[in-house]
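Reply to thread "Modeling small-molecule complexes from scratch"

Following up on the discussion above, here's a worked example others can learn from. I took a protein sequence and the SMILES for adenosine-5'-diphosphate and predicted the complex. Inputs first:
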Amino acid sequence: ATVLVNGQGNRETPCCIAVKDGQLLVGEAAQTSGLPPEDIVFGVKRLLGRKWNSPDLAEDLRHLPFRVVEGKNQQAVIPVRWGEEEKLLYPEEVLALILRELKNTIVEHTGLADTKSIGAVLTVPASFNDAQRQAAKDAGAIAGFNVLRIINEPTSAAIALGLDKYHESERNAVLVDMGGCSTDVTVLTIEDGIFEIKSTAGSARHGGEDLDGRLLEYCLAQFSREHPGVDLRARPRALRRLQKACERAKCRLSHDIQAVIEVDSLVEGHDFSCQITRARFEELIREQLEETLRLAK
Ligand SMILES: Nc1ncnc2c1ncn2[C@@H]1O[C@H](COP(=O)(O)OP(=O)(O)O)[C@@H](O)[C@H]1O
Ligand SMILES: [Mg+2]
């Protein structure tokens, strides 16, 4: 298997879209468009296949900066300004726009004709119900894929890790999947290449972004010691740049034992630089790690 790079040269495409000057922007192009947060649509996985009146949805909506309204069949729908008109996009349509972008990448790299013949296996959280799975399938179809299967994310992770290869007899595995804003812990058994999910637990509001957040707090404390007169919290653009630098440092700490967080001319010409060790970082995120372990019990 080969992971293709997208138009930006990256192997991952953030799940977000925006429309600027009537042009659709997908992934990083949307993130770096300079548009205000309420114009960038992300996290539609949370809206997919959900009923408007479900309490889970109401809770999620409080955390999304963009507008979501009630559409037909009690579905959530996102009004998007598209040039002169306002389009109502259903979550599966937003997902389809992202999938179509991925399909374009496939077409460009492989020279395959852009027809329905490109088979796709899509992965969804193990906790997804039938309606959510159907919505994911619909998104694939709208994007023009021939959706072969919908499989669970932990199962796909187990396959990617080759967990079905090592033993013939039945064995158990615990998979911890920390995404951007959620963490799922799944127990599954594997026998003769068959995966069976025994149980799954998740925290829909804790994930990698919380780790970035802890690192950001750490940097903010250092910055205010260095420049007591400057309130960085009141500077959204500077905060976002620092937060991005924190995320990069976090990723680096996955393989290095220390990292530097550096932002040139962060605010009012002040450069920012801070060194952090993995041990210190692990202290900062102790609560999150404990919460993850609690989920696994
Ligand atoms: N090498 C890495 N080390 C630590 N965290 C990483 C690394 N690569 C990506 N991440 C983090 O993983 C999170 C995104 O997870 P992902 O599974 O891609 O998203 P999703 O929430 O859609 O499942 C982000 O918080 C990102 O910072
Ligand atoms: Mg993920």
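What I'd highlight from this example: Residues 15, 179-181, 207-209, 247, 250-251, 254 surround adenosine-5'-diphosphate (ligand 1) (CB under 6 Å). The chain is about 35% helix and 30% strand. Questions welcome below.
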